[in-house]
Amino acid sequence: MALCQGDSLVYKYLEDFVGHTPLVRLKRMPGDSSNVVLLKLEGNNPAGSVKDRPALSMIRRAEARGDIKPGDTLIEPTSGNTGIALAMAAAMMGYKMILLMPEGSSAERVQTMRAYGAEVILTPKETSMPGAIDEAHRMQRAGLGVILDQFANPDNPLAHYESTGPEIWADTQGRVTHFVSSMGTTGTIMGNSRYLKEQNPAIQIIGVQPETGSQIPGIRKWEDEYLPKICDFSRIDQLIHVSQQEAEETARRLAREEGILAGPSSGGALAVALRLNQQLENAVIVSIVCDRGDRYLSTGLFPL
């Protein structure tokens, strides 16, 4: 895309296309309802997920503070989407990237990170994300790189405060009544809650967590020791739990009935949004679609 400025053309860089994602209305799944159910399609970001926003924000702001400079090595524990986004941003901005993630992550995620030039280290599956986090901090203490720390870095939710929230507010013309988001690092829900509540304190912020025993990529209920430092539960009006089965089946329905291919965390958030749709009248419900479903084709989410 080229923009005209006087007599000259100004061409955009890849990072200029992070954000400004579509907000689309569901046609079939809400049924006969007085509500409007809207999905924010974050898979339309360049690296395919909502994590493009905080990845770019964390690197840009750390660089502006002088904490890092091009050529440095960055380290980050990730369950997938943040790692892919950071791998893209690091390649674009001239950084080396080491990503640590638990074994058992989808092959598409690992391959995508490596395609961007990142080094991927798989940690034991049984230690889950806490194991990846611990190993990342061990590597930083050994002087092998700098952790941006999506779990404690205020530049994570700030990205959503400055972009995602304003986009939702503008695209609904201030009519949004309920915001639904899966909770992983919690950056998405924290940043959007702060912005939307500043515009209208009556907007209800709904956080989605997994039921006990459910393993849903991108949705997590943290042990107290590992609870992200950016998380402030006072910014969430209601926590609703969803099962792995419901999250996956809703993701499959979303593809079949609405033509939107998304991952299980998006299915979990939508399942909660659809529950609200059955309980409310004349509401405008916005749910975050975190990423694209083609990232999960090898996992069996979409059976052959």
Explain this structure.
This protein is of the alpha/beta class. The chain folds into 2 domains: 14-44 and 163-296, 3-Layer(aba) Sandwich (Rossmann fold), CATH 3.40.50; 51-147, Rossmann fold (3-Layer(aba) Sandwich), CATH 3.40.50. The protein is 37% helix and 19% strand. The chain contains 8 helices and 12 strands. The strands form 3 sheets. It has a 6-stranded mixed β-sheet. Helix 2 (81-93) links the parallel strand 5 (73-77) and strand 6 (96-102). The chain is globular and about 55 Å long. The chain starts with a strand and ends in a 15-residue tail after the last strand.
Write the SSE topology.
Blueprint: E1 2-5, E2 8-11, E3 23-25, E4 36-41, H1 52-65, E5 73-77, H2 81-93, E6 96-102, H3 107-115, E7 119-123, H4 128-141, E8 146-147, H5 155-171, E9 178-182, H6 187-199, E10 204-210, E11 238-242, H7 244-258, H8 264-279, E12 284-289
Pathway: Amino-acid biosynthesis; L-cysteine biosynthesis; L-cysteine from L-serine: step 2/2
GO molecular function: cysteine synthase activity
Family: Belongs to the cysteine synthase/cystathionine beta-synthase family.
Please report the number of helical segments: 8
Top-tier CATH class of the largest domain: Alpha Beta
Our measurement of the CA-to-CA distance between the termini, rounded to an integer number of angstroms, reads 38 Å
What are the segments in which pLDDT stays under 50 over at least 5 consecutive residues?
Answer: none
Question: What sequence of helices (H) and strands (E) makes up the elements?
Answer: EEEEHEHEHEHEHEHEEHHE
CATH topology of the largest domain: Rossmann fold
The strand order across the widest sheet is 3-4-12-9-10-11
Using the 3D structure, state the CATH architecture of the largest domain: 3-Layer(aba) Sandwich
Question: Measured on Cα atoms, how large is the radius of gyration?
Answer: 19 Å
User: How much helix, percentage-wise, in residues?
Assistant: 25-40%
Q: Biggest sheet, in brief?
A: 6 strands, mixed
